[in-house]
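User: Good morning. I'm curious how 4LM would be positioned relative to this chain. Could you predict the structure with it bound?
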Amino acid sequence: MKNTAGFATRAIHHAYDPMSHEGALTPPLHLSSTFVFETADAGAEMFAGAREGHFYSRISNPTTDLLEQRIATLEGAEAGLALASGMGAISAALWTILSPGDELITDKTLYGCTFAFMRHGLAKWGVTITHVDMTDVQAVSAAVSDKTKVVYFETPANPNMRLVDIAGVSEIAHTVGAQVIVDNTYATPYLTQPITLGADLVLHSATKYLGGHGDVVAGLLVGRAEQIAEIRLVGMKDMTGSVMAPFNAMLILRGLKTLALRMERHCSTAHQVATWLEAQPVVSKVYYPGLESFAQQDIATRQMVKPGAMIAFEMTGGYAMGKALMDHLSLIMRAVSLGDAESLIQHPASMTHSTYTPQERAAHGISEGLVRLSIGLEDADDIIADLGQALVAIADKQAAPA
Ligand code: 4LM
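Assistant: Good morning! Here's the predicted structure, ligand included:
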C-alpha cells in the first residue's frame, strides 16, 4: 500500500502485510514479554542499539510497534510511541525533555490531571510553570524567553473548547528554540494534524476517540524519530515504565480502523445537538466550534477539518440546573472520559477539573456551572429527545408548588 493512500485506508492497512503473518487478516497479538536472542552477541548488539529487533516488551513489542507506525502516519509524523495512558505519555515526554531551572509555558486551560502533574509534579522538581492565555498569540510572544524549553497546549482545550492557533504559537516558540507539544485528544488526527502545522510532539489520550469504545486506557505520542527514541528509552523505559500492554494496542488498532467513519458521525450529530441546545431558553451559552456564535470560528476553520464532537454549555440556573439536567437524563450517561460510542455528560468543576482549586478555576477560565457533553454515536434524534425530556422534567419540578 502506498504512503499516499487516504486517511481511512492507512488507518486500516498501513505497515501490515498479511502474507508475512501466515495470511492473517488481523494483525497477531504478541503477548510475549521477552524475545529470544539468536546468539549472545546478537543480544549484546541489541542492548547497544547496534541491531534492530524486539528484546523486551517494556521497550518495544511487535503489536505496539504496528500501532506506533499507524499513529505516526495518521499524524504525519516520523515516529510514534505507545504508552500506558495519556498521563503516561505526558509525563514520559516532559520528564525526558525538562530539567530543573527550565520553564514550561502552557495554556490556562488544561485537563485537570495534566494541570495537577505540572503544578504539583513538575514544579516540585524545579521546573517553572507559566500559564498564559494562548488564545492570544501576542501573550505567548510576550511570555517566551531563552529559558522556555517547552510550549504546551490542548486544542480544543478540555473542558471549555478554547482553541489555540497551532501554526502561530509554534512559530513564536521556535524563535526562542522551545519545543511545541500539542495534546490532540479532542480533535484526533482525523480533524487536525499539529505536526503539519509546526508542532514538535503530539500526544493523545488514546483512551478516547482513538480507542473509541470505552474499553482501554492508553496513550500515544508522535514526533521526530530521534526524539521519540529518546523518550522511549528515558521517559518510558527508565523513568515511568509507562508501557502500553500489547492487548491494549490491539484494541486501539481495531478502533483506528473506524476512526474516520466514527468522527464523521460524531461531528454531524454534535453539530445538530449544539444547534438544538443553543435554541433552548434555559441554556445561556454553548461552546462548540461549529456554531456561528463561537468566538474563534476563524481558527476552527483554519486548522480543523470539522468542529469535533465535544460540547460545553452553561445554563441560566448555574450548576444547580446543570446537575438537575444530568440527573434527569436516561440515554446520555453520567461519566467522565469522552470519545466513546455512548454519549457522556459530566461536570468539570466537581469531576475532571476538581484538581484545580475554585480560585484556580476562576483564574483559568473554567466556570463552576460548565457542563461537558461528549456526543456519542447514537441517533441524533434520540440524544436530543433525552436532553429535551430532561429539560421538561426540570421545568415541571420548578413549576410544581412546594
Ligand atoms: C476526561 N481526560 O476529560 P488518560 N489529555 C486530555 C484528556 O482529556 C485526558 C488525558 C490527557 C479525561 C479522563 C477522565 C485532553 C483525560 C489523560 O486518562 O491518562 O488516558 O488521559 O474525562
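The mean pLDDT is 97. The first helix runs from residue 7 to 13.
Let me know if you'd like a different ligand tried.
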